[in-house]
From TrEMBL, chain A:
Segments crossing the lipid bilayer: 12-38, 58-81, 88-108, 114-134, 146-165, 199-217, 238-263, 283-308, 329-349
One Gene Ontology term, aspect cellular component: plasma membrane
Protein name, as recorded: ABC transporter permease
Subcellular location: Cell membrane
Keyword line: Cell membrane, Membrane, Transmembrane, Transmembrane helix
GO molecular-function terms, A-Z: transmembrane transporter activity
UniProtKB/TrEMBL annotation, chain B:
Signal peptide: 1-21
UniProt keyword annotation of Signal present: yes
ABC transporter substrate-binding protein PnrA-like domain residues: 25-308
Classification via CDD domains: PBP1_BMP-like
Any one annotated GO CC term: plasma membrane
Keywords: Signal
Organism: Mesorhizobium zhangyense
This protein's record includes keyword Signal: yes
Lineage: superkingdom: Bacteria
Gene3D superfamilies: 3.40.50.2300
Name of the protein in its database record: BMP family ABC transporter substrate-binding protein
Length: 366, 356
């Protein structure tokens, strides 16, 4: 006996749209079971996870701080994934973008003017895009697998940042600790509404980017091109679309947005470069992109949900004493159920008895 | 009638006082950079918290967050504690420095204690650290006595002053016994990575080291040394369970006395800003039992420890020559804390180039 997945002849648009909600509900149920097994009251636990962080103003600000990089990166990734380019290296593009954007405040701290911040934002996008162009070039020229190259460039970026903050960019007044000088006031991304919390303009960038990419994907020819080349490269060729130009376009858009996320995080939330500036945003954003069904507007919601799970994890750790590992387990379950629901909406499961399968295989080959 | 009213009022007063006393429990909160099960840095901080809980009993309530990344997340975690009624917050890693000071500015009534940093931008921020290098000097003395090859391998984490301070102290201790002693250094660029640390230990042993010491937190180097049949020193906690026939001693970070003292001062209302750098004398740096060595080495180690503990001897007492051959400290001169806390050069005899 074996299990086969058979494509459903008709796909329900309603179920497709509802799929993330099913996944969320299943995650909550599985989470409740997990908490019961840990000996905690599941309702309490879920309350601390998903409701408590939304009760106070400062915490909503923190939600925006946490969601901003996730949304920015995931919006860019949606262009990549829709066009069938598997950019797994957003984490590296985030880091290189942050470093490119930090050149002015770190190397030229005396250059203080209102122009510094806009220049930093532009340089970060250029830096992230250039770094993302490397796997694009390798893919189009040498037909290398972009999953491997983009992923490996993450480690290169992490070590490069590490070396820079310990060496050439180390703060001269920092007692030899590995960090750059603190950014001067012109280089700090302002807070949106400083009286109530520390959410910075990075969140606004994320919303604007989501709207622009949504518009591009759904209303323009370029968006159509992205989707056609993603679903059927051959059809795209007949339509006169260039697959290799699309590879560059997708990588550069997502690299630029990841770079912007990087400088927003460094300039808005941290205030200097440190050996590590991201707790894995580039990878978490992959979950966000799929949870948002590769739709930029869906990604905004998905980014907020994932950010909430981080905040909730802390609240639960303090209030009911569950380990921080539970957050990871939660995020893992969420991705598992999203992919599971999607698969089951598009395919149905069929049990095949072994005796029959041989005949079927030969039939299939014929 | 009047009497009843009075007694009711009295009862109410007693009751309200009773609830006030219950609320007056002091809450101490801790932020750890690693998991409390790392058997190194965060583990030892948590052991200190457990000691404080035992000592202060009902007066104290504690909470902790583990594996908090250094960066934007740290500020949120600290602010969450400040808002959740913590009276004193200990942030136990260098990378929390700016976040601690930022949050402290917003919550002037909460006390903040930052480990291993140097910024105290608000009157409610103190910093604290321990003179671990005092223990490393003792280890250097033991290493020079025990090593047949005259070469020790040193697994270092990051080239920050605290680590350089440890390497130099180890070297100075060894030179006090054997002026030709060599120390080889491998930079693992991590605080906790059993795989990398084990590789570093193997590389050092293959280069001729027959004593291993480490400034990283896992037990892997100890286990490699045990496999190869050489001796090693533990780090942060007593690692004798991982090297019964291997561990010579270990520097144990004992934060308990400091945490008890600081939390008590919050309870009494006597807490004030300070910059603490305590060592063996105050009980923050403790040597695990001296094992796997002959009695004369043990005796010498105990004498050295006693001299440092009593304050009679400072490991950084001249004459000391820098690696490049220039004089640093004249005979009898003692290095000042400011220089030590920013140390960025080796002393003579260290077989490595300091990453700059």
């Amino acid at each position: 006996m074996r299990i086969e997945l058979v494509k459903r002849p008709q796909q329900s648009a309603l179920y497709s749209a509802l799929s993330p909600f099913f996944a969320l509900a299943l995650t909550l149920i599985a989470g409740a079971i997990m908490f019961s097994l840990l000996g905690k009251n599941p309702l309490d636990a879920l309350y601390y996870y998903f409701i408590d962080p939304l009760r106070e103003m400062w915490s909503l600000h923190e939600l925006a701080v946490k969601a901003a990089p996730l949304i920015l990166i995931a919006v860019g990734l949606s262009v990549c994934f829709l066009s069938n380019n598997w950019n797994i290296g957003a984490e590296g593009q985030f880091i290189i973008g942050a470093m490119a954007g930090s050149i002015l405040p770190v190397m030229y701290p005396d250059f203080q003017s209102w122009i510094v911040l806009p220049l930093m934002l532009i340089m970060s996008m250029v830096g992230g895009a250039a770094y993302a162009a490397i796997p694009a070039l390798l893919k189009t020229r040498f037909n290398t697998n972009e999953i491997l190259t983009s992923l490996m460039l993450v480690y290169v970026a992490q070590l490069f940042l590490d070396w820079m903050v310990r060496g050439p960019w180390r703060n001269p007044a920092g007692m030899n600790f590995p960090e750059t000088r603190n950014f001067h006031e012109y280089a700090v991304l302002p807070e949106i509404w400083p009286d109530s919390g520390r959410a910075h303009w990075g969140f606004v960038f994320a919303l604007v980017a989501a709207l622009l990419v949504w518009f591009m994907l759904s209303k323009t020819l370029r968006g159509f091109e992205v989707k056609v080349l993603g679903q059927s490269p051959r059809a795209g060729r007949f339509a006169g679309f260039s697959a290799s130009k699309m590879v560059f376009f997708a990588f550069i858009v997502s690299g630029a947005l990841a770079g912007l996320a990087g400088i927003s995080e460094v300039s808005g939330a941290i205030g200097q470069l440190r050996p590590t500036i991201s707790p894995g945003y580039g990878f978490a954003a992959i979950i966000v992109a799929f949870l948002g069904r590769l739709n930029p507007l869906g990604i905004v919601a998905a980014g907020l949900v994932l950010a909430l799970s981080y905040l909730g994890g802390e609240a639960a750790q303090i209030s009911i004493g569950v380990s921080d590992k539970v957050v990871r387990a939660f995020q893992g379950m969420l991705l598992f159920f999203v992919l599971g629901c999607d698969t089951l909406i598009h395919y149905r499961i069929r049990l095949v008895r072994t005796a029959l399968s041989k005949a079927e295989v030969s039939h299939g080959n014929a | 009638m009047k009497k009843t009213i009075l007694s009711i009022a009295a009862a109410a007063a007693v009751l309200s006082f009773g609830t006030m006393a219950a609320e007056a429990k002091t809450k101490a909160c801790f932020i750890y950079v690693g998991p409390i099960g790392d058997f190194g840095w965060s583990y030892q901080h948590h052991q200190g918290v457990l000691q404080a809980e035992k000592e202060l009993g009902d007066q104290l309530e504690t909470a902790y967050l583990e594996s908090v990344p250094e960066g934007a997340d740290a500020e949120r975690a600290i602010e969450r504690f400040a808002r959740s009624g913590c009276n004193i917050i200990f942030t136990t890693s260098f990378g929390y420095m700016d976040a601690t000071n930022k949050v402290a500015g917003k919550f002037p009534d909460v006390k903040f204690e930052h480990a291993t940093g140097y910024k105290r931008e608000h009157p409610n921020v103190s910093t604290y650290n321990s003179k671990f290098h005092e223990g490393r000097y003792v280890q250097g003395v033991i290493a020079a006595k025990m090593s047949k090859a005259g070469v020790a391998g040193y697994i270092a984490s990051f080239p920050i002053p605290e680590v350089v301070l440890g390497i130099n102290a180890f070297m100075l201790g060894a030179q006090s016994v054997n002026p030709d002693f060599k120390v080889k250094v491998v930079w693992a660029n991590t605080w906790f990575d059993p795989g990398k640390e084990a590789d570093a230990a193997k590389a050092l042993i293959d280069q001729g080291a027959d004593i291993i010491t480490q400034h990283t937190d896992s037990t892997a180097p100890m286990q490699v040394a045990a496999e190869r049949g050489i001796k090693a020193f533990g780090q942060a906690s007593d690692m004798i369970a991982f090297g019964k026939d291997t561990q010579l001693t270990s520097i144990v970070d004992d934060w308990g006395p400091y945490y008890i003292h600081q939390i008590k001062s919050v309870i009494d209302g006597t807490w004030k800003q300070q910059d603490v750098w305590d060592g063996m004398k105050e009980g923050n740096v403790v040597m695990a039992p001296y094992t796997n060595m002959p009695d004369d080495v043990k005796k010498l180690a105990e004498e050295t420890e006693a001299k440092i503990k009593s304050g009679e001897f400072n490991p950084y007492t001249g004459p000391i020559t820098k690696q490049d051959g220039t004089e640093w400290l004249k005979a009898g001169e003692v290095a000042d804390n400011g220089t030590l806390l920013g140390l960025n050069f080796y002393v003579k005899g260290v077989d490595d180039k300091l990453p700059q």
